[in-house]
Design a protein that fits this description.
Length: 344
């Protein structure tokens, strides 16, 4: 099976530039519609703007779902300080220490955008004795706008108000050696792998074994992803990042199959089936358990959907920070996904 790795990389580089922090779907959904059109697919939405794409199977009696979440970590304006700096709240479980000195964009509700930088209150080693030690949290971190503003009133005059959404720059690089260094590989790397698997089927005129509902939700990072599905689904495969660490067998070149996370175990037979398919396709893979992790799959069954769940994805370094993955891991994820679509 030959997966187009240039397509995966290009798709990731395209998706990661479109801001989509938790609950902000306005810019990415039109891009998904363009991608769907290239595959002669259409996009349907639920009321909270989860995007769905359906592929018809050889056997149309059964539907399986494959899910990669669109939402990324982000921030929201909490309040405006008297000196014109912005206090923030996190959207999702990002690591603020890791975001320090990153460029950000504040989007007002009337569509104006202003860039700025996320800084620690004790921002400079030459000035503050606690720069090295101060914990970076919602109380110690601020946004300094790239505008000549020094008071709350001047910031308000820009149209900025509490509850404005803040995009964090993805800070993306793709090295000649195949490493992706970027924020939001979680989960745009997995979205790219999903589209590469669809492309493989389309390029080779192959139909999936069963109907497939691709699901692209916007609330995974706050534990509410894929809670509603458009139709009856028997199996649900979350494609989400794998982890790298002392207890994990996965690495950046393999596809990780998650057997258990903080919520509970994934379906025994479904998980075993995926490991078998990985073996058959010659994919480098690893089965792992995750300590502090959840996915669209377990939020979806918690919401009452009656189905078996599993979870696969490329193993990624420094998750929820500026992450690193290798194109091999994304390729193996696409390959295992394509095998699952074809074999059922
Ligand atoms: Zn994720």
């Amino acid at each position: 099976m030959k997966i187009d790795t240039n397509y995966i990389a290009d798709m990731f580089l395209k998706l990661v530039q479109v801001p989509s922090p938790v609950g902000y779907y306005s810019e990415l959904n039109p891009v998904l519609e363009d991608i769907a059109r290239e595959f002669s697919l259409t996009v349907q939405y639920d009321n909270k703007k989860t995007a769905f794409m359906k592929l018809e199977g050889e056997n149309t009696d059964k539907t399986v779902a494959v899910c990669a979440h669109c939402d990324t970590l982000g921030l929201m304006v909490r309040s405006i300080d008297g000196d014109g700096m912005l206090k923030i709240r996190k959207l999702g479980g990002g690591c603020l220490a890791n975001m320090e000195n990153e460029s950000v964009t504040v989007r007002t509700r009337d569509g104006r955008t202003y860039t700025g930088m996320l800084i620690c209150r004790s921002h400079s080693v030459h000035v503050f004795p606690d720069t090295h030690t101060l914990e970076r949290n919602e109380d110690t971190v601020r946004i300094i706008l790239d505008e000549n503003v020094h008071s709350k009133e001047e910031v308000e005059a820009l149209g900025i108000q509490n509850g404005d959404i803040v995009f964090v720059d993805p800070h993306c690089e793709y090295t000649k050696t195949g490493y992706l260094k970027s924020r939001f590989i979680d989960d745009k790397g997995c979205m790219a792998s999903c589209f590469a698997a669809i492309k493989y089927l389309k390029d080779n005129n192959l139909k999936p074994k069963y109907n497939v509902l691709f699901v692209f939700p916007y609330y995974e990072e706050v534990g509410m992803g894929a809670t509603y599905l458009l139709e009856e689904v028997e199996e649900f495969l979350a494609v989400d990042i794998g982890l790298i660490g002392p207890d994990c067998a996965g690495n950046e070149h393999s596809v990780s199959i998650c057997a258990k996370d903080a919520v509970g175990p994934y379906d025994y037979e479904f998980t075993s089936k995926l490991a078998e398919y990985a073996k058959q396709e010659g994919c480098k893979y690893a089965i792992d358990t995750y300590f502090s992790y959840g996915s669209d799959a377990n939020s979806s069954i918690k919401a009452g959907n009656n189905m078996r769940i599993a979870n696969i994805g490329p193993a990624v370094y420094s998750t929820h920070g500026r992450e690193r993955a290798h194109i091999d891991g994304l390729e193996n994820t696409a390959k295992l996904l394509a095998a699952y679509l074809l074999k059922g």
